Amino acid sequence: QVGNIEISTLYLLHSGKTGGSAFNTKNAAITKFSDLTIDNPWNGFYGETQNTLLVEDSLITNVKGAAAFKLFDDAAGAPSARTDGVTINNLIIACAYNSGTDGFVADGPVYAIAAFRLNILACRDNFALLNTAVSTTRYPSFYNVFDLEIDGASRRSVYFGGAKNVYLDNPEISNTSGA
């Protein structure tokens, strides 16, 4: 268990990587990122079993790996694990063009997300809620996303592969890639 992590006003140039994430947290409670720029990472942020995560005024750009921002909990392998209490306020995600990178991904029991001004650009799947464990009860739930802006997805702008109680308020979904 890791608790009370705060990172503020940081520019992280993470170039030259061919794996891993710029930030990876597991079993973390009360984590805050503000004024954070992650530039040129393989993967940007990966969080597993998070409780009370706050991301403010941040940028993840030129991502080339699997995902720019991913929250995950293994519904099948860890039956009591979950992520909840996530607040995002002004996050910009920009994937490297034609990289095959997904933008915002939540998979498994990732609950109670409030996002304000979430901008996702040029990713494969820009906004994806998944249930890869095929759980009947433990999948992304209770999402309130205000001012979601999406553009340039190479596969899907928004994908719900398993979710419930998802509210997108005032979204702007533009896509000139044909996805």
What structural keywords apply?
single chain; globular; 66% strand; mainly beta
Please specify the SSE layout and strand pairing.
Elements: E1 2-13, E2 21-39, E3 43-63, E4 67-72, E5 83-95, E6 102-107, E7 110-121, E8 125-130, E9 141-151, E10 156-160, E11 164-169, E12 172-173
Parallel strand pairs: 1-2, 2-3, 3-4, 3-5, 4-6, 5-7, 6-8, 7-9, 8-10, 9-11, 9-12
Note down, in words, how this protein is organized.
- With 179 residues, this protein is an all-beta fold.
- The protein has strands at 2-13, 21-39, 43-63, 67-72, 83-95, 102-107, 110-121, 125-130, 141-151, 156-160, 164-169, 172-173.
- Strands 1, 2, 3, 4, 5, 6, 7, 8, 9, 10, 11 and 12 form a 12-stranded parallel β-sheet that branches.
- 42% of the residues are buried.
- The model has no long low-confidence stretch (mean pLDDT 91).
